[in-house]
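lol ok so funny story. i was supposed to be doing the assay writeup but got distracted and ended up predicting the structure for this chain instead. priorities right. anyway since i did it might as well share w the group, maybe its usefull for someone
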Amino acid sequence: MTSANFDAWSAGQNYEHYMGRWSRRIAARYVDWLAAPANADWLEIGCGTGALTEAVLGRGEPHSITATDQSADFVAHARAATTDPRARFEVGDSSRLPASDGSIDVVTSGLVLNFIPDRPAALAEMHRVLKPKGLLSFYVWDYPGGGVGFIDGFWKAAGEIDPRADALNERVRFPFCTGEALAGLCRQAGFEAPLAEPIEIETLFPDFESFWHPFTLGAGPAPGYCASLAAEQRAMLRVRLEQELGTDGPISLAARAWAVKAQRPD
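and the output, tada:
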C-alpha cells in the first residue's frame, strides 16, 4: 500500500463535499493577501473544481486566466461552473505549461504543489513562462503543523486503529510544507526574496454526521483510505472520532495554509 494509491482527486462533486467548500474560503483569503496587479494575465496549475479560479476572477481583477489540471473530470467541472469569458480551462500538468516563454504576469497554484512529485522542475517551468518581474504565487496546507484540523484529527484516529495509516498521514508525507522550506524551494528556482506567511480559516461542521460523511466519498487521500477499509474497520474509525469530537452540537476546527509569493528577476 502506497500513499499515492489514495490521492484520488478526479471526482469533482465528491471533492466539493470534502475539501472544495474550504478551498473556496482559503482561496478568497489568499487572493486578497497576494494583492497581484490588476489587468494581469494569470496561469493556474491544478485548478481542481475552480475554487481559486473563481477567487481570482471575482477579487483579482485579471485580464485573463488559463486554468489547468491533470484531471479531465476536474477541468470539465470547473469549465461548467465558470462562464466568465476571461477564463480558459485546459487539461495539463506542471511539467509542460501551456504558455510561451516570458508571457505570463502571475503564475499561481492552490493546494497542489505538495502533490507534484518533481517540485524543482515545476518551479523551473513556472519561472520559464513568467515575464521578467512576474509574480510566482502558491499556497499549501500547513500539514506539518497540523494545519487542517479535520484531516489531522482523522489521521490521528486512523493511526490508533490501523498502524498502516501513519505512513499515509499528510504530516508524514509532506514535511516540506513549512514557510521556511517553501521559501527555500523558490530561492533554489531563481526567484527573488520569497515571502511565506500563514493564512487561516475556520472549518465549521453543524454536527458529527456532516464531519464524517465527506470522508466516505473517496475523493482525496483520507477519503480514499477510508473507502479502502473493511466495514468493521470503518465503523471502528467512526467510533474513535465520535469519542474524540463528540456527537452533540457543531464541530469547529481551524485550517491553516502557507501562502508564498516571489518575483522572477529581470
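The first strand starts at residue 41 and ends at 45. The chain has ten helices and seven strands.
back to the writeup now i swear
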